[in-house]
Amino acid sequence: MFGFVSPRTLRQKGILGMNRRNIHYIGQYNDRKNFPLVDNKLKTKQIAQEAGISVPSMIATIKNQSEIKHLTSMIAGVNGFVVKPAHGSAGKGIIVIVGRDGDDFIKPNGERLSLKDIQKDISGILSGLYSLGGKYDVAMIESLVEFDPIFDNYSYEGVPDIRVVVYRGFPAMAMLRCSTKQSDGKANLHQGAIGVGIDLATGKPINAVQHNRAISIHPDTGHDFSQLKIPHWDRLLPLAASCYDITKLGYLGVDIVLDKNLGPLILELNARPGLAIQIANRQGEVPRFELIDNQDMSLSVEERVRFSRESFNLV
Fold this sequence. Notes:
Layout: H1 7-12, H2 18-29, H3 36-39, H4 41-50, E1 58-62, H5 71-74, E2 81-85, E3 95-97, E4 99-101, E5 104-106, E6 112-113, H6 115-126, E7 139-143, E8 161-167, E9 170-178, E10 194-198, E11 205-210, E12 213-215, H7 233-247, E13 251-259, E14 263-270, H8 277-281, H9 286-293, H10 301-311
Antiparallel strand pairs: 1-7, 2-3, 2-7, 4-5, 5-6, 8-9, 8-13, 9-10, 10-11, 11-12, 13-14
């Protein structure tokens, strides 16, 4: 996107780097006492529900190794579900099941897992294999989101999500993350998912990248990203902005999925959102943050969203 340029040039373009992110934005605007609200996905779900914010429904939680033997009864009659660590990050330890065939569980790429395979993964979750800091963890089993059919041509079997970076309560930048065969049905950019920069004003795509390289069509479906428009955009941005009010984290990544029946759902929150969203948008975050710094911080959610849509219109 930016070619081989010097750090000075990147700063001039407003590109936010790791050090500045950690020291100036996370260090200044994210009080560490609030980190557990987002680092623990169970707590995130709880505070979101208390605030009236929609989230995917919970099927079960497994906290002890002795509970793993009851997995069969926990998921009885459930064809699709997601297993994830409560303290996981970067998509590690997540298993997505989209169906069953006899005693086998089917992943998005068609791979079959046995009950013992899933139990083994849950055991790894509980032991802290995927958690931040390697601490003992909890396994969450959530219902599988039935994603909006508008994404049928833009995601390889998995559920796409929308990442919105919210700065001091203002939506600052957004991207759609689309799963691929390479990413195993997960919307994780590090595993080969596609990042599509989204215009905050309209919900329309700006640019698409895979492994930081610009692309125009989905490698597995062959469909053109320029034809896509995110539905429920008027509901989605206020939902993201309101997450600042329940966490008090000034630099926040909000991950949202679109269920075909329920609309936007908060999937998870991140107190250390990554920087690749700038590549997907072909824009640096710093100028947007600096503009937001000059605004009235007592504005309502609706007023903050209106400001962002009016100020960061690129299409």
